[in-house]
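Final report, closing paragraph on structural work. Over the funding period we assembled a curated collection of sequence-structure pairs, and we close with a single example.
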Amino acid sequence: MIQCGGTVTLTSSAGTSYLWNNGSTAQSVVVGTGGYTVRVTNSSGCSAVSAPTYVTINANPTASITPSGTLMLCTGTTQTLTAGNATSYACSTGATTQSINVSTGGSYYVTINNSSGCSSTSAPVVVSYYDCNCQAPTGVAMAAVWKSSARVQWTYNAQATRYKVTITQVTDPTKTQTKYWRGGETTIAFNTLRSGTQYQVVITPTCGSSSGSSSTIYFVTKP
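Its predicted structure, as stored:
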């Protein structure tokens, strides 16, 4: 009896008592790789030992995909996806090679087989492509300004996958804070600012793997 992964349940013929060679006294036993016999006793006290049953449980492989770089790419570029070592491959694209080159966004997975004939399917890898002509953010303005905090806002650009927002005290450039936006409303708040002080705000977008031009504004906290 050969199977891939898991365990095997062996069940003897009916009797009044049972003794397996692994010490179990149940009619059914859950076993791994090995050879197994059972002595079955009936109601008359007569007993017999079964012929051995041999179980082989082969390990399932672990399927994985390793990308050659970032999964957020510029349109027109190519990404290489490589599966772990195996004896055969069946990619979601239909390819049967260990590595594939992709140039369109999507979810990719692979089913592999090892030398025992056992198989496994990887978790999907999602590749995204973006127009890397990242434009400088528009609509940049202060949504609110207080004595020790402020909130900046800008207009959302569907091509941007991330925004880097840096606020710097103009009179002391060492006093700076940086935050990153990755989703939700295009607004970020900064705290622990100095009252009655001028600050510079710089917003830089990232589209896929490419950074775009920045937008800069200035404001003064309330005294």
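The chain has no helices and 25 strands. The radius of gyration is 32 Å. We thank the funder for supporting this effort.
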